[in-house]
Amino acid sequence: MVRLTADLIWKSPHFFNALKERELDLRGNKIPVIENLGATEDQFDTIDLSDNEIVKLENLPYLNRLGTLIINNNRITRINPNIGEFLPKLHTLVLTNNRLVNLVEIDPLASLSKLQYLSLLDNNITKKPNYRLYVIHKLKSLRVLDFKKVKDKERLEAKTLFSSKEVEEETRKVSPKKFVPAEDTEMAEEQQTPKVVVPTQDQINAIKAAIVNSQTLEEVARLEQALKSGQLPADLKIMDDDTSTDTGKDKDDEMVVTNENEANAEVKDVEEQKNNESEPMDQEQEPSELNEEDLRVLISHIEETDGGPPWKLMMEQSIPSLTYKAWYRDPPTGPPQYRTRTVFENVSPEILRDFFWDDEFRPRWDKMLIHSKVLSTCLQTGTMIVHWIRKLPLFCSAREYIIIRRIWESATGYYCVTKGTPYPSLPRLRRPKRVDVYHSSWCIRPVKSRNADQQTGSEVLLFHYEDIGLPQEVVKMGVRAGMWNMVKKLHLGVQIYNMEKANDESPSYYAIMAHITTKLPASPSTIMYHIPQVEADENACQNQNPQAQAIESS
């Protein structure tokens, strides 16, 4: 764990965010305790403490300027009852994916007199009866709860329901815990520790599993103390040998993170859950295949002949070395769809083809990708099945993707189809949530430069949609706010990638696989009607060591 010191605060990224507010980024440092925030000298509008290991929202200095506090993906179980005295202007609080269990635990937020936007998604508290009405009743100034607007009808209903103290106390059901400093809590826990025995590794794994399945704060605290001290409570029921067999089997399939710089606590949590509690939720189908029909669909999107709703212009930006244009539309069913056209100056289609497939290089420009692993490849068609974990911005917890992708090549460019696929040998976990509906395909082809008559530029036409399990209007708002910033990061990544390849940097395994394509007719107009059928050799598409075979074939 890392202490939140003044030095860490000074060295952490700080910038103007999409809302033109000054933001301090303290994400992903494994911080266990909030401390030393006085070192910020109250110079920030937003502080992001996501993806740490904070248990208590306490020990805050007086921060008169702070308006937004983002603290999702932590272990928050308690909130200082006097928090409003230290954050008088706080209007936005994101507590997504923490460990708040009982309604009484959000009562301290009533001291935040200007709180208007609150997220408690992925906390057990949201499963309590009358949860939403209780929060609206306690927080009078709230305008948006869990990304849904608070309606006047709800305010009236909350006022009617909790018109008497008796009803409010009955709704709480659990009396409030006395707020005590962390030191006193630890002393009390030590005094009440039950008789212990020295645990085995299997018993330690059982404690971790019990923590995940705990339903009360007291149980979580007791088990975490046991795990921390390395001693096993005598009253903890341990799985017998027959029950633990499946757990041992799952451990053999444990996900390995190869990128040490990008792997973080979220991936670690995934590994622990997989060892202790992975269970197939439903019978998974066999992995999908990508064939010529998928290519026809991509081409129909590119040529706007798919028969869907009309596209609406969303954004248009230009800098000397890049031109960008984006559209969106809302189909009758399913998530919003996006279509973009990007022109890169002085970059070849081949470089862009390798760039978009190179998951080894991708974390250098796409900080949301925290894990990638090749699950299978076909050395005849170049088809790859890849496992991703992405850390989505702000309020969202991480999402898991299993995608299949393949490239076709014509004389005029490259066509890549990517979509989500079932994969039975990788069981679903409770965290991170798996994204099943995912489609992201592109066409790359040379174009004339804006600055000359030669073909020194490349055009990328992208068609994309996915369902991450959030309200569509929230997703569209987030995409619109972060789109241009993401494009600028992508552009910088392309420039660095282009420069490194010019210096004869050895290609990655992903880039080598991008060279294995299916050849198409020269004229794009004939592709829709004459696409060669390629039947892959079964042995070439079921290899167990895809990287070694791909490099050997190159």
Any overview of this molecule?
By secondary structure, the chain is α/β, with parallel strands linked by helices. Helix content is 30%, strand content 21%. The strands form four sheets. Strands 13, 14, 15, 16, 17, 18, 19, 20, 21, 22 and 23 form an eleven-stranded mixed sheet that branches. Strands 1-2-3-5-7-8-9-10 form an eight-stranded mixed sheet, with helices on one face. The longest helix is centred in the last third of the chain and has 31 residues, at 472-502.
Keywords:
554 residues; alpha/beta; eleven-stranded mixed β-sheet; eight-stranded mixed β-sheet; 23 strands; 30% helix; globular; disordered C terminus
What's the N-to-C terminus distance? 43 Å
- Structural classification: alpha/beta
Total of helices: 16
Contiguous runs where pLDDT drops below 50 for at least 5 residues: 174-197, 237-267, 269-282, 543-554
Number of strands: 23
Radius of gyration: 26 Å
Q: State mean pLDDT (0 to 100 scale).
A: 78
Helix content: 25-40%
Amount of beta strand? 15-25%
State the major sheet.
11 strands, mixed
Tell me the overall shape: globular
Quick overview:
The protein is of the alpha/beta class and 554 residues long.
List the helices and strands and how they pair.
Elements: H1 6-11, E1 14-16, E2 22-25, E3 46-48, E4 56-57, E5 68-70, E6 78-79, H2 83-86, E7 92-94, E8 117-119, H3 131-138, E9 144-145, E10 148-149, H4 152-161, H5 165-172, H6 182-191, E11 196-197, H7 201-212, H8 217-229, E12 232-233, H9 241-252, H10 265-277, H11 292-302, E13 312-319, E14 322-329, E15 337-345, H12 349-357, E16 369-377, E17 384-390, E18 399-410, E19 413-420, E20 433-435, E21 438-447, E22 457-466, H13 472-502, H14 509-514, E23 518-519, H15 524-527, H16 546-553
Parallel strand pairs: 2-3, 3-5, 4-6, 5-7, 7-8, 8-9, 18-20, 18-23
Antiparallel strand pairs: 1-2, 9-10, 11-12, 13-14, 14-15, 15-22, 16-17, 17-18, 18-19, 19-21, 21-22
Helix pairs in contact: 3-4, 7-8, 7-10, 9-10
